[in-house]
Amino acid sequence: MSEETAKLLVVRDLTTTFATLGGPLPAVAGVSFDLNKNETLGIVGESGSGKTVLSRTIMGLQQRTNVTVTGSVLLNGHEMVGASEKEKRTLWGTEVAMVFQDPMTSLNPVMRVGKQIDETLRVRLGMSRADAKVRAIELLELVGIPSPQRRYGAFPGQLSGGMRQRVVIATALACTPKLLLADEPTTGLDVTIQAQILNLIDQLKEQLHMSVILVTHDLGVVATRTSKIVVMYAGRIVEMGSTREVFANHRMPYTRALLDSSPKITNPSHTRLTTIPGRPPNLLQLSDGCSFAPRCAYATERCRAERPELTPASEAGHFFACWNPLTGAREVAAS
Amino acid sequence: MSDNFDHAIVAEFAHPHLERPEEREPLGVLFWICVGWIALNLFGAIFANVLPLQNPLYQNYTLINAGPSLHHLFGTDDIGRDIFSRVVYGSRISITAGVGAMTIGFGIGAPLGMLTAYRRGRFDTMVTTVMYALLAFPGIVATIAVLSFWVPRDLFKIIVVIGVASIPIVYRIIRAATLSVASRDFVVAAKVQGASDRRILFKELLPNVAPILISFLLIGIATVVTLEGALAFLGLSVNPPTPSWGNMINEARTVMAQNPWLVIFPSLALCLFLLSLNFIGDRLRTHYDFAEVKL
Fold it and tell me: Which member of A103, A132, A165, B228 lies 3.0 to 4.6 Å from A118 by CB, making a disulfide possible if both were Cys?
């Protein structure tokens, strides 16, 4: 059972359904995956694929009404699905913390940044005012903010976007969480700053022995920084496996389409970006078949009528959901 | 794919020197003049009976409808009472009504609005429906109706009636202000750091709502002072001979042709008080609105 104990997060058959005026909307449907300690998992998919809802469901952050969550999220032995606010409050910060998309809105504009960090330290860890201040300055230094003593007293509006995201990360790290959920942590930032922030998260993960879930639509982001990738489409996992496998040996046409539509530095300049034709499906009117079928070049009658389940590929831990899988590089070599 | 980022080079471009200074436009001379004026009014209202003022009820029949003079700064009215003294004493009633009613209105409406905006759900739907139903009923009609039957009228009853009538309005404004803040990520961020609801309400939401709350409170006080004036004009405020700005104007109405000072001075006092409050409220709102502007 040594493998079991190494697992920090076990998600099983997780479904999040919103009750809307148009009927039930399954934003996340039957998602299962594991995350080991000190591992980085990338969740990729286009807008509306359910990435954000999935990460919020893992956090246990749902609206109070109109949403049903079934399945199981086992975080370091604690069940998050159905846990009360009070139970979750004891897990938030120490077991799992979150970095939000937009550093412009995830800091309180009228509170000094240092205060936002030491609030957490004092409330959660019971530190004294003086200790909390020392620790907050340490954290600011840890996330690479120059002259942290001075920045401690700054308001968020006085900091640049990259600096703010560093502060957000420092806040998230205040109680040394075991899992850091980063929901598109670089969307609001310049490209150069994006790389800095991602590198910072990577480096902190090593330093603090955390696990990280990186939610993004940018395959370039997950390529170098994750060990495992989950590809989502219309609320379901359509392919998952080690980063290497998914990049080199993907079987699901959607993964291929995603890879094809990211820019490559080896392309000559002015190469037109490939796009995926069509649009993500309306989750209120899903067909019985594969959700990607209407946009897929390889779709057959069966794809439209019957939904493919996740099936194991040749490498352990690599799964895909497709009736007409692409021939991966490994299969080509074998034949 | 993995070579898309050259981290070492990228890291060289860190620009931590971009920092905006903590700058804010000064509030301005006019703002401080208004503050001074309000302070003077408050001072007069609080210390009216200690200050060397003439008895506001003393009727000097040898000197009626006199114009402003050294002895009677604002002159005297049609039964020989000192107008200056009455204006100062009148501010007591008007200001107490404004502050008192808004204490009730904000004391109940503001916490309720913040709470429902933060909690949402069924409780919010229920309270909001009730408040909107109350809003649909014309407040001035309700106020007049209640004050006509609830006799004998005194300042306390007027404050209670206006205060209660203002709750739905305060509720709606504070709820809307809180809603726009409560949906921001930093509230969720505080929550997932383990902050309790009470902490989020007081430490995260309140400071963000405070500028709106304060400016609306000042404007609210001004509105109630006017409303008291309107009620007094209809004879529904404190009973004569107790002066309030409103009932002074009301009484002066009949002798306006003989002695215009009688209507001019209380009106001027009312007008300047309201103008100052509104200006302060407005200036404060723009001054502290950096939540929107600077982000």
Answer: A132
**Residue A220 to residue B20, Cβ atoms within 8 A:** no
Q: Which of A172, A16, A6, A178 is nearest to A81 (CA)?
A: A16
Strand A179-183 and strand A211-216: the pairing is: parallel
- Here the tokens at position A247 are 């990049």
Residue whose entry in the numeric block shows the structure tokens 């920092």:
B19
DSSP B72: S
From B16, B22, B122, residue closest to A163, measured CB to CB: B16
From A171, A161, A152, A155, select the one nearest A111 (Cα to Cα): A155
* C-alpha to C-alpha distance for B205 and B183, rounded to whole angstroms: 10
Our measurement of the distance from residue A325's CA atom to the centroid of its chain's CA atoms, rounded to an integer in Å, reads 25
Q: Strand (E) positions, chain B?
A: none
- Find which of A98, A110, A202, A266 to mutate to test the B interface (most B CBs within 10 Å of its CB): A110
d(CA B212, CA B273): 20
Distance from CA of B191 to the nearest CA of A (A): 8
Average pLDDT value for residue range A305-330: 83
Band of the pLDDT at A189, cuts 50, 70, 90? confident
For A48-82, letters b (16+ CB in 10 Å) and e give bbbbbbbbbbbbbbbeeeeeebebebbbbeeebbe
Cα–Cα distances in angstroms (integers) from residue A157 to residues B26, B103, B284, in the given order: 18, 33, 19
Count how many Cα atoms sit within 13 Å of the Cα of residue B265 in the half-sphere of its side chain: 26
* DSSP 3-state of A71: strand
Are A154 and B22 within 8 A, CB to CB?
yes
Q: What is the pLDDT of residues B55-79, one digit of tens each?
A: 777 777 777 767 777 777 777 777 7
Neighbouring CB atoms inside 10 A of B68's CB total 15
Q: In this structure, what token pair is assigned to residue A81? A: 């699905």
CA angle B218/B223/B228 to nearest 5° reads 125
pLDDT tens digits along A34-59: 999 889 999 998 888 888 889 989 98
Q: At what angle do helices B206-233 and B261-287 cross, to 10 degrees?
A: 170
User: Does residue B9 sit at the A interface (CB-CB below 8 Å)?
Assistant: no
Tell if the CB–CB gap between A168 and B189 is shorter than 8 Å.
yes
With beta carbons under 8 A apart, name residues in chain A contacting B185: 100-102, 105-106
Which residue of chain B is at minimal alpha-carbon distance from A153? B22
Q: How far apart are CA A186 and CA A192, in angstroms?
A: 10
Q: How do strand A236-242 and strand A311-312 relate by DSSP bridges?
A: unpaired
Mean pLDDT for all residues in chain A: 85
Pair A72, A31: CB distance under 8 Å: no
Q: Which of B274, B189, B193, B289 is nearest to B230 (CA)?
A: B274
Q: Do A20 and A284 contact (CB within 8 A), yes or no?
A: yes
Strands A67-75 and A211-216: unpaired
Size of interface A-B (CB pairs under 8 A): 138
> CA B212, B215, B218 angle in degrees (round to 5)?
145
Stretch (H or E) spanning A215: strand A211-216
Report d(CA A293, CA A300) in Å as an integer.
8
